[in-house]
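Question (not urgent): is this output format expected?
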Amino acid sequence: MPGRGRCPDCGSTELVEDSHYSQSQLVCSDCGCVVTEGVLTTTFSDEGNLREVTYSRSTGENEQISRSQQRGLRRVRDLCRVLQLPPTFEDTAVAYYQQAYRHSGIRAARLQKKEVLVGCCVLITCRQHNWPLTMGAICTLLYADLDVFSSIYMQIVKLLGLDVPSLCLAELVKTYCSSFKLFQASPSVPAKYVEDKEKMLSRTLQLVELANETWLVTGRHPLPVITAATFLAWQSLQPADRLSCSLARFCKLANVDLPYPASSRLQELLAVLLRMAEQLAWLRVLRLDKRSVVKHIGDLLQHRHSLVRLAFRDGTAEVETRGKEPPAWGQGQREGEVGNNSLGLPQGKRPASPALLLPPCMLKPPKPICPAPPVSTVTGDENISDSEIEQYLRTPQEVRDFQRAQAARQAATSVPNPP
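Got this back:
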């Protein structure tokens, strides 16, 4: 096709027309060089004024995505599919990743931070849609450090100016308990260990609410608390057959991992239940311990709010009630008001010395680490003050020399400067 010229690369005259995105292009059939491009219009005004722009100068060509960003977007989509999130969640997480990647600090960050950014975008999306997902679960999937993840998470929330609600504890309990393999009989789960899902979920929610009211959840990872509450709820529904089962065996039967602090959260929950049991007369005479109190969890949860108020007090309750004798039964009580006797308490008496309702970190503060005493290094070249030098003078000659040196220094400092 001599009328169309030659290829600028190889000089061939075999030029053919090829369509690319519905635009005709002139391409060399020998080397593949694009000799002439098609034209595109960028805006309606350009189209109306018949101004044409080549494809390489159009916005579609300029907005190219780097390989690092492409890899991050794939990781976001893969993580959403692993978590089986709805398609709308995936689109939102991708949009957040693209917004964060526009900042120069994110683009220049290390690969580890960009990997954590993937999980942060997914977690923000789940929190905004009230989807029960914990930060620990994301860290487990990405093999990320929890401290690094939390710091980057707060940085991204502040950087993008997002409003992220806190995690809904009730939804997390429902989702987490649904993963327990204790609701159907199987070869690995004996029949006496199978429990009704709704009963177990209802009692677990009550125990988690009790833990939240007594400061056992605040500032802590929720899964160990939920695991301990689920274990107590499962035991209390059939205590005769299940009191001999340990927490580790329970998690193995349920096919869930045992969180490390779950044993400590279990002991804290049992301590709260024992304090509440001391307020009921028919339980106080039984002298319950942490094993036998599980049998009466149903009764304790039935009067949970009243028992918590009686068993615990805040820091100002002692000042307000000091010096006041408790009124006898019936005195100062309005009609229809529930008194202590509805809980089986002796008439005219209240349990003495309720415990302070404080977070565990305040009840058992960590021992302060005493700093090591500073090591004094004496070299002999230290300056000696005038008040101390007199202690080192021994002979009259030394005293006279010191007085002359002191007088000479004073005379030198008192000479006025020349004009």
